[in-house]
Specification:
Strand content: 5-15%
Low-confidence stretches: 3-22, 24-37
Number of helices: 9
Oligomer: single chain
Strand order of the largest sheet: 3-4-2-5-6-7
Distance between the termini: 69 Å
Largest sheet: 6 strands, parallel
Radius of gyration: 19 Å
């Protein structure tokens, strides 16, 4: 047997042992639940549609926004415009403004870009603002405490300086569990961004975000992604630490959202916007 094949076999055995000792499972205990899967009302959609929202993100955020019109159509309503950049000058109606902020794998650049964009003018044009990290931004090398300190300090300072805007915190999106062969190959390459270990770190950051921004000023994206249609959670343990994972039925490639997942997340996003918007 070749050396490469031996390494692959050994990696498979290692991954199998991890799964046997902890691994992943569906559970409804131990991690925060969400009620957004229960749907959204026409009144909530109307409240969200009246708001002027700024959303800084990258690709998973685009999955979400692409699904927004379909959520409105399902209720016989017309969605507000979704535009990239800035709202139309002098506009007063609802609008969902988005921008691709920062660089993937550099979460600090996203925080800085979001802060600069709000302060450059959007802070005087919108009612609600939020930014989202990508799953590839948070890895086993991430200093979670340092990153959260900057994130919290930036959002809190923006809320102080722009009291007319509601800033929503957003939990970090997750990745699905992979099969043994895929995990083994990633282990050999030492370049995985979709392992349980990465989701453990994301869960640590998400726990800090939930603790600080509990209540209506939080859009819990990770909870939505990890909640299956039957209400069970995709959770597990790795190295003795708990984590949640993206439900397979919501993903096109293990990290991004398919049509079903995008609709679930878009529905939750609209409910979160509606919760802080008054007609």
């Amino acid at each position: 047997m070749s050396k490469g094949r031996l390494s692959l076999v050994a990696a498979v055995l290692v991954v199998a042992a991890v799964v046997a000792l902890g691994g992943w499972h569906h559970s409804d205990k131990g991690l925060p639940m969400t009620s957004a899967r229960d749907g959204v009302t026409a009144d909530e959609l109307a409240r969200a549609g009246d708001a002027r929202v700024f959303f800084g993100h990258q690709s998973v955020g685009m999955n979400l926004l692409d699904a927004v019109p379909g959520v409105y159509r399902a209720h016989g309503l017309t969605a507000p415009p979704v535009t990239e950049g800035t709202p139309a000058p002098g506009g007063s109606g609802g609008v969902f403004v988005h921008r691709f902020i920062g660089r993937n794998e550099d979460p600090m650049s996203k925080i800085k870009d979001f802060d600069a964009t709000v302060r450059a003018g959007l802070g005087h044009q919108v009612d609600v603002a939020m930014m989202k990290f990508c799953y590839i931004d948070i890895t086993t090398s991430t200093d979670v405490d340092a990153l959260f300190a900057v994130y919290r300090g930036t959002l809190d300072a923006l809320q102080r300086d722009f009291p007319g805007v509601t800033f929503l915190a957003v939990t970090v999106p997750l990745t699905t569990e992979q099969g043994l062969l895929a995990q083994a190959k990633n282990w050999i390459r030492r370049s995985d961004r979709m392992s349980p270990a990465e989701n453990v770190v994301r869960e640590r950051l998400n726990t800090l975000i939930r603790q600080h921004y509990s209540g209506k000023h939080l859009f819990d994206l990770a909870a939505l992604e990890s909640t299956a249609p039957d209400g069970s959670r995709v959770t597990g343990t790795s190295g003795g630490q708990p984590y949640a994972a993206l439900y397979d039925g919501y993903s096109s490639d293990g990290g991004h959202l398919d049509v079903t997942g995008a609709q679930v997340v878009a529905t939750g996003w609209l409910r979160a916007v509606a919760a802080v918007s008054a007609r």
